[in-house]
């Protein structure tokens, strides 16, 4: 889920701005709109490929208010996400949250909704693919280095159960804890990232193909930015054994992921 269906450590955009004099500076707008598009060689969610290790096209936009409230839509192609008799080739994440900076510390809290279009096409299908996941993160900047801790909690829902509602079962929840480091190399367009995460639970997001409950994922990466373009490369791995249901390919082992994105 983003699996059968983070995650890849985020690529940091490095930007410089010329100083503006107070007389020339216009007040910042109350509402800002930003976004971007990305091509990735493999869409990884918490270390697990969502595209059977094939390319994916992704896009996003965010509407943010000066109060700190924001709304984001993020989408990606995925590899034949199957629930019962229905198939989806897209994932759309709808996010609402609040972000506020206090000096060098930034608090971000909100709710993610994972949506897989066209995964319930036949009447009577009892499966469920879509679910909510509240999150909270705290980041602090130390010069060119930013450290961030994030907790995601997928509370008990049909889609987070081990069978995603295909057969009657107790609903299950999952917790994901992650730490990320990013560093801009001063005087260069280069940045470095590191990521470590762990998933707890006994539902679909946490149990691999062998029945193991819980797993760890990690990633290290580098990126170079030129104007609005960012080219990145990361190595991503886990200690889990997730398999593609059609090909039986292992989709959670280590691999190099390349990314080319444009921001606006």
Label the structural class: mainly beta
**Rg estimate, integer Å:** 19 Å
Envelope shape: globular
How is the biggest beta sheet arranged? 12 strands, antiparallel, barrel
Tally of strands: 14
Q: Spatial order of the strands in the main sheet?
A: 1-4-5-6-7-8-9-10-11-12-13-14
Distance between the termini: 27 Å
The low-confidence parts are 2-22
Kindly state the mean pLDDT as a whole number?
A: 87
Number of helices: 0
Strand content: over 45%
Q: Encode the helix/strand succession as letters.
A: EEEEEEEEEEEEEE
Helical proportion, percent range? under 10%
What does this structure look like?
With 264 residues, the protein is an all-beta fold. It contains no helices and 14 strands. The chain has strands spanning 31-40, 44-45, 48-49, 56-65, 69-83, 86-102, 105-115, 131-142, 145-157, 172-184, 190-201, 215-226, 229-238, 255-263. Strands 1-4-5-6-7-8-9-10-11-12-13-14 form a 12-stranded antiparallel β-barrel. A two-stranded antiparallel sheet has the order 2-3. A hairpin with a 2-residue loop joins strand 12 and strand 13 (229-238). It is globular. Mean pLDDT is 87; it is low at 2-22.
Keywords:
264 residues; mainly beta; twelve-stranded antiparallel β-barrel; two-stranded antiparallel ribbon; 0% helix; disordered N terminus
């Amino acid at each position: 889920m983003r699996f059968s269906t983070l995650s890849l450590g985020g690529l940091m955009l490095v930007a410089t701005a010329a100083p503006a004099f107070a007389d020339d500076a216009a007040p910042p707008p109350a509402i800002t709109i930003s976004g971007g598009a990305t091509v990735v060689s493999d869409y990884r969610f918490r270390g697990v490929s969502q595209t059977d290790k094939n390319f994916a096209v992704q896009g996003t936009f965010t509407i943010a208010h000066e109060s700190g409230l924001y709304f984001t839509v993020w989408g990606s192609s995925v590899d034949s996400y199957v629930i019962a008799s229905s198939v989806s080739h897209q994932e759309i994440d709808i996010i609402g949250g609040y972000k506020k900076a206090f000096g060098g510390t930034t608090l971000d809290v909100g709710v993610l909704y994972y949506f897989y279009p066209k995964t319930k096409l036949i009447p009577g299908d009892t499966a469920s693919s879509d679910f909510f996941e509240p999150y909270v993160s705290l980041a602090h900047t130390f010069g060119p280095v930013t450290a961030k801790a994030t907790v995601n909690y997928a509370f008990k829902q049909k889609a987070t159960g081990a069978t995603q509602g295909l057969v009657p079962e107790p609903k299950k929840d999952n917790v994901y804890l992650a730490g990320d480091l990013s560093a801009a190399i001063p005087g260069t367009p280069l940045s470095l990232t590191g990521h470590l995460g762990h998933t707890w639970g006994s539902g679909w997001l946490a149990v691999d193909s062998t029945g193991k409950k819980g797993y760890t994922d990690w990633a290290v990466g580098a990126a170079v930015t030129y104007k609005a373009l960012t080219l990145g490369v990361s190595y991503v791995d886990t200690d889990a054994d997730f398999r593609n249901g059609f090909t039986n390919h292992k989709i959670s082992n280590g691999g190099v992921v390349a990314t080319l994105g444009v921001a606006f």
